[in-house]
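Holo prediction. Input below; ligand is fe (ii) ion.
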Amino acid sequence: MGLKLINGLFYFEHTFDDIDNQALIDEIKYTKENPDRTDLDDSRPHPLDLNEEGMDMQHTFYEDVPLTNKSLVLLGDKVQGVCDSIFNMKQSVMCEEVWGHVIPPGEQTMVHNHGSNTPVGGSKNELGLSWVYYPHMPVKSGNLIFIASANQQRVMWEIESTPSTLYLFSRDILHFTPRNASEETRISVSGNCVLGSELMNVIRKDIGFKNNFWYFQGREGENIVDRDKDNGQKEK
Ligand SMILES: [Fe+2]
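Structure of the complex:
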């Protein structure tokens, strides 16, 4: 007797106490004002880059800036450490893209996910996770809201986003932040990770959906009892 999960979606949150948040905020604000600085990581398009059609190359629909190599390594290592604890293995994920958001008062982040238009998104062979980190969270500056569905039921799930907190979630889940109703420009950092080769191998063989990854991704496919095996047991 008891409730048993068929399918569901979860996110994970973790609060850090050893990140220099003000330095991160200052760096991203400076990059926004000085997009031609030369010490930026290249996992994201340069803020001034245009594609072959002369269009903006950003793929999250709003103002974002690359981080410096130093900040990318710092946050990448932090996120990897959290994921390693979730999946109980070293190098469970690799952070391949990291970028900063600059949301001035009165602005908001459109509904989007991190799974499309990226080199790894949408591919069943290269699963991953996405995340956002809030170095600060001015009051009424726009909580993170997920839009999720299971069994054709849709839910909008608002998180009371807090400073120094990392939120890990599916690359495919839609999310947005409402208008920044504070008088302060809100800064956040987002990223995408791909699963490391060891975790990927575990996931590929995980026909019973035992791994924690499925809490993020949602189950897909079949978990079918081996009827032949059961029949054999009953006949004994
Ligand atoms: Fe996002």
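The CA atoms of residues 123 and 205 lie 17 Å apart. That is the main takeaway for now.
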